[in-house]
Automatic annotation (TrEMBL):
Alphabetically ordered keywords of this record: Hydrolase
MF-aspect GO terms: asparaginase activity
Name of the protein this chain belongs to: L-asparaginase
Protein family according to the UniProt entry: Belongs to the asparaginase 1 family.
Gene that this polypeptide is encoded by: ansA
Pfam families: Asparaginase (PF00710), Asparaginase_C (PF17763)
Species assigned in the record: Tepiditoga spiralis
Length: 326
């Protein structure tokens, strides 16, 4: 029987209803997640309590420390895989951080819950059971960091939270799940090929994420260097286009050797230098702005934090974001 480390970080899966406060973290639940019935029929499990935080409280520094812990666990021959419990709000960012910074063949699976244990249809126990099943199987190996909820398996790079309350919130727009957890087995339909490993002992979390909009004059962007930021990710339109005033500000930032990555607010598709008008993707690329391909704004920011700890050279940073074109 395989042995799986269950690392807790908190989230709704470890919360309960308080009559006065609402849904809040519960130390008791967090510490007993590996006591869920049926887990012992799948694998030997050991609970390792990393934190008990709502996921909006998780910071990039927490992600870095979690990455270091998971690296130690997967190097330990005692463990065959790792399951991490997490809140859903920022799970995709932590999952992507781990996917970038951990090079492992052993399965690493993040799971969560949309309904706390006080609710009659709490999904946490089944999600944890399914995730331990996934982490226990040889066919789950060498798939990068996985996310498993609602009997679906997703790639960390592709998955995003799509619904505020539904248990089927996690989806991979444009890709679909890697596989499913069924009653009798785990089925993988595909693998994700676009993966990158960046060894990280430190991060630079002074990366802004700005969403542009119609009529945006770029005033906020102008002040980022003075505010102590080291780089910015801009969520543009369509193929990676922005209003002309924003484009002008981004060009000035690049002249100051301030890294700028543009991604799209669209859920599907790549940004690409197609449009040559002022603020169009081709115009931006010509002036040194980096086009971040199909990675979302929040995930592009995660990558930039890791990359900035290694280099400040814009052309080197570009290679991390535009590698699909190489």
């Amino acid at each position: 029987m395989k042995k799986i480390a269950i690392v807790t970080t908190g989230g709704t899966i470890a919360m309960t209803q308080d009559p006065n406060l609402g849904v809040v973290p519960s130390e008791k639940i967090n510490q007993k997640l590996n006591d869920i019935p049926y887990l012992k029929n799948i694998a030997k499990t050991e609970l390792i309590e990393f934190a008990n935080k709502p996921s909006p409280h998780i910071t990039p520094k927490d992600m870095l420390e979690l990455s270091k812990l998971v690296k130690k666990l997967i190097k330990n021959k005692e463990y065959d895989g790792v399951v991490i419990t997490h809140g859903t709000d920022t799970l995709e960012e932590t999952a992507y951080f781990l996917d970038l910074t951990i090079d492992t063949v052993k399965p690493v699976v993040l799971t969560a819950a949309m309904r706390n244990l006080s609710e009659p249809s709490a999904d946490g126990p089944m999600n944890l059971i399914a995730s331990v099943r996934v982490a226990s199987l040889e066919k789950s190996a060498d798939n990068g960091v996985l996310v498993c909820l609602n009997d679906e398996i997703h790639a960390a790079r592709e998955v995003t939270k799509t619904y505020t309350s539904n248990v089927a919130t996690f989806d991979s727009p444009g890709y679909g799940p890697l596989g499913i957890v069924d009653e009798d087995t785990v089925v993988f339909f595909r693998r994700t090929l676009e993966r990158m490993h960046i060894e990280a002992d430190a991060i630079n979390d002074k990366v802004a994420l700005i969403k542009t909009y119609t009529g945006d004059n770029g005033e906020t962007l102008k002040h980022l260097p003075k505010m102590g930021y080291s780089a910015v990710v801009v969520e543009g339109f369509g193929r990676g286009n922005v209003p002309p005033a924003v484009g002008n500000v981004l060009k000035e930032l690049v002249k100051q050797n301030f890294p700028v990555v543009v991604v799209s607010r669209c859920f599907k598709g790549r940004v690409l230098g197609v449009y040559g008008y002022d603020g169009g993707g081709a115009d931006l690329k010509k002036h040194g702005i980096i086009l971040g391909q199909e990675v979302s704004g929040q995930k592009a920011r995660i990558k930039m934090m890791v990359v900035l700890a290694k280099t400040k050279e814009i052309n080197v940073i570009r290679d991390y974001f535009e590698f699909q074109n190489k």
